[in-house]
Write a structure and sequence with these properties.
alpha/beta, globular, six-stranded parallel beta sheet, Rossmann fold, 341 residues, single chain, 2 domains
């Protein structure tokens, strides 16, 4: 069957292409309903990636955060109309040590092959997870980015020492908000501190113990562990500030994406015996566990509703452009496209 795919052919320009979907016995057909714009999508849309990267990746359909409805399932895994979250990471092999999201052979939708800006998406059953009844679909649309934070924190629980009296989160944007929220849930006895640059944004972190502007941090403040959720050109400053105030043998998680190399205070990393690790993307089990968390702790979904920003109904390419342009100029929150294609 012919399928409409909305590809970014060059920065700020979408075009419709028609691709054939082979209906077989092992793939499920899903109609996207809600799509969430990520910073990675914006880097492609605005042409902020290196020229050679854009030449290699485009044309390509964007978006890796999305939910949809099952319209055809020959595998019997879901009934028609079932609401599902779609997993963008697509492994082609398994490894006893390396997780699916770190295998270099894995494909990722919206980064190397077409994302979810399509009329229908053909997916294997294990790339879909059923959504809870009654969940806010606008929040469910950005389950993928929440699963990334869930994945990082799960690794932190394995990597870090057990003194977790104080945990710092650098970043007052969406990723910082989500990470701090999940840390609050996972480590209820820990003090969660958030460090940012925008006092108005920091006021939204009502569930943490303290917030600090990065240029007004008390000299005697110290933390046990840190999460960097900044990325970009500001990441080195955030990481180095965390290095300065972290206790010896603490753990720092790197989460923000930067295009340029970051100069770090390696001397103090060595002197303090700091453990640093990077985390990217997530795998199926992170989605499954997160959905169970949504069911058992609905207040987490309620908090996530506070970072819903723009909601744009999309009936054609002009609406897509409008959504991406509004997303560029938003102060805070996730931009959601209500997909009517």
């Amino acid at each position: 069957m012919l399928n409409k795919v909305y590809q970014l052919v060059r920065p700020r320009q979408f075009e419709i292409v028609y691709k054939n979907i082979e209906l077989d016995d092992s793939h499920i057909l899903v109609h996207p309903t809600h799509l969430s714009i990520c910073n990675a999508d914006q880097r492609y849309y605005q042409g902020l990636r290196a020229e050679e990267v854009l030449r290699k990746k485009l044309p390509m359909a964007l978006i890796h955060e999305a939910i949809g409805e099952v319209v055809y399932d020959p595998t019997g895994s879901f009934e028609t109309g079932a609401k599902v979250v779609m997993i963008p990471n697509t492994p082609v092999e398994t490894d006893p040590i390396v997780a699916e999201n770190y295998l270099r052979s894995s494909k990722f939708r919206g980064s190397g092959f077409d994302g979810f800006m399509q009329e229908f998406v053909s997916m294997e059953p294990d790339r879909l997870v059923r959504l809870p009844e009654g969940i806010n679909p606008v929040v469910a649309a950005f389950t993928e980015i929440v699963s990334v934070s869930y994945h990082v924190i799960s690794r932190f629980a394995r990597f870090s020492h057990e003194r977790r009296d104080t945990i710092g989160v650098w970043g007052d944007g969406n990723l910082g908000y989500i990470t701090a929220l999940l840390l609050r849930n996972r480590f209820p006895d820990s003090k969660i501190y958030v460090f940012g640059i925008n006092e108005m944004k920091l006021n939204d972190f009502t569930f943490v113990d303290r917030t600090f502007l990065v240029n007004h941090v008390p000299e005697d403040l110290a933390i046990d562990h840190a999460f960097e959720c900044v990325g970009g050109g500001a990441a080195p400053g955030a990481i180095n500030q965390a290095i300065d105030i972290i206790h010896p043998e603490g753990t720092i998680a790197f989460m923000g994406v930067s295009e340029d190399l970051a100069p770090l205070n390696t001397r103090m990393i060595l002197e303090k015996g700091i453990r640093c690790y990077g985390s990217s993307r997530s795998g199926r089990q992170d989605f499954v566990d997160l959905i169970e968390l949504y069911k058992s702790r609905p207040e987490i979904v309620n908090h996530l509703e506070k970072i819903v920003g723009v909601q744009q109904e999309v009936r054609g390419i002009p609406d897509m452009v409008k959504a991406f342009e509004m997303d560029i100029h938003k102060i805070m929150g996730k931009t959601i496209m209500e997909w009517d294609q």
